[in-house]
Structure to design on (215 residues):
């Protein structure tokens, strides 16, 4: 299938692109950074999803909105407005089969940085709006809301033993997800799944529900 993924130069987006390429799909990646992937089946477009012209990509069957920033002063503009711009261009056509948004656990909890949480909460609401419209093409639209993920963006916490200890105390399962696990979820939701739509999946090692009963 023809797959378009934003934010493929590192982290979750790169892992998702690698998963689809390994499974024999054709992947177009859009990222403001240079390509970190190469080989048959992969095309890289260096562009900012908010401000640069978006490439003409015909017959997109799977669209995965992953590109984003955190605590940048542009969170709502890039994470929400940029994602809407990409989706409106590539998803609203009769070849589309699935749209996926990489949101965040903070969309549910409101934790983390204010504009980041707001941008991801807006993304989940927009995902549901997208589901209503792409249903006309027989397509699904869902989102993944990861909690902590082992990415370069989170090195500030991962590499600090005291902060890491505090973070681990917040989860039921004392770990964070690897990018490869999120990629597996992305593949399942967009390729294997054909019946679930308008749903947000929380993948946070139990952090949001880690309540303790004190008696």
């Amino acid at each position: 299938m023809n797959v378009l993924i934003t934010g493929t130069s590192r982290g979750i987006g790169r892992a998702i692109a690698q998963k689809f390429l390994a499974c024999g799909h054709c992947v177009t990646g859009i990222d403001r950074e240079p390509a970190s992937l190469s080989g048959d089946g992969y095309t890289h477009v260096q562009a900012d999803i908010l401000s640069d012209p978006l490439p003409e990509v015909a017959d997109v069957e799977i669209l995965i909105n992953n590109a984003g920033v955190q605590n940048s002063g542009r969170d709502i503009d890039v994470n929400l407005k940029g994602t809407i711009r990409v989706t409106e261009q590539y998803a609203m056509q009769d070849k589309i089969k699935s749209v996926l948004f990489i949101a965040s656990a903070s969309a549910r909890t409101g934790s983390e940085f204010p504009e980041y949480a707001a941008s991801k909460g807006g993304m989940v609401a927009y995902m549901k709006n997208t589901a209503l419209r792409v249903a006309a093409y027989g397509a699904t639209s869902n989102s993944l809301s990861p909690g902590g993920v082992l990415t370069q963006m989170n090195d500030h916490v991962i590499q600090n033993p005291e902060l890491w200890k505090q973070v681990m105390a917040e989860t039921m399962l004392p770990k964070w997800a690897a990018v490869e696990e999120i990629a597996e979820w992305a593949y399942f939701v967009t390729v294997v799944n054909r019946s679930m739509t308008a749903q947000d999946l929380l993948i946070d090692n139990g952090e949001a529900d880690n309540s303790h009963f004190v008696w």
DSSP finds seven helices and seven strands in the chain. The first strand starts at residue 2 and ends at 6. The mean pLDDT is 96.
